[in-house]
């Protein structure tokens, strides 16, 4: 079912009386304010919920996951399995096929490695030697992996926004902070004519919302209520077993209360995460037991964190204080995300706060987490066992069981998971969330004479 048909169903069964007998109105300018900088063109680095939402206006992966986890074609024209162990992607043009191939081989190779490369691990050669055949790209599998098609819908696998491919999403940039609807978008022209984007900080976002200057506010707004979507932006503390003492995990577990850390120092909708997978993917499991406090003299370590994520600064400072009580002298070092990922790939760190936008599927999510933990050796052992389970529910259960079993042996300590903080003005309709926890603005529309208003929230 396409987005247009879904919206038509909503009109039939649950639309407002004013529109029940009429059409959804086309046109209008949506004013959207957001925290943080505008995302760059690299989808693998634009992986906070706000950045992924904004980048998704101009770039999409080959498919998207609906709220129920069902796959819908987006950039691709066809996604099929001509053979049990081969997935075929048919794209609109040869140039697009070549662009996608270059993007995927880049972040699976040594040039700009990313933990999201684990999404393509089941492909022969880890997708490093892909070669399109005309407009088609075939992915031969090294082992059974029924979740590959849904994995390909992850935002990190979207095509980069470049001068040669300026927009593959529902909107295209026509000026600084201005996006215009793309008439040729494969899923149908967006209802809105344009979106006006305004970057600001949290105080500015709250001020603009209160003054009724925007229709949509994205970011860590106070008292936003329930999660707008799935909380899949997971933050971990990675540590190097070569550089920190063997009792570091015990010292951390005895010092840090994840519930307090999340409640007091993390903004946006957030939940504490005691396991390798977020509560949205793994619930009702025993929590890890605190270890015995370590003893001895002060041991110096450096904690790297993402300079572009304000929450990480507050969390890093809290960890610095609590680990000091356990005999660690922690120096804090903020880094740009690109440099942070580069040092992660080289293993050049003592401690590192690592945030990832996990796919909403337990098996692929576990693959990304294991890669982020520096345990790529486990991918070839664990993923074939998970992929061999044909039933979807049983396969998800298997992935959750392995996440619990592997947690004590990987140098990665889960902290919290975040959703997207978002408020929507009354009179804006048609906005839905996908399975990734991100809003689909191409289906949104403004009722006639809708002012920006702080009354609604999601």
TrEMBL record:
Q: Which UniProt keywords apply?
A: Signal
Write the signal peptide boundaries.
Answer: 1-20
- Name of the protein described by the UniProt record: Peptide ABC transporter substrate-binding protein
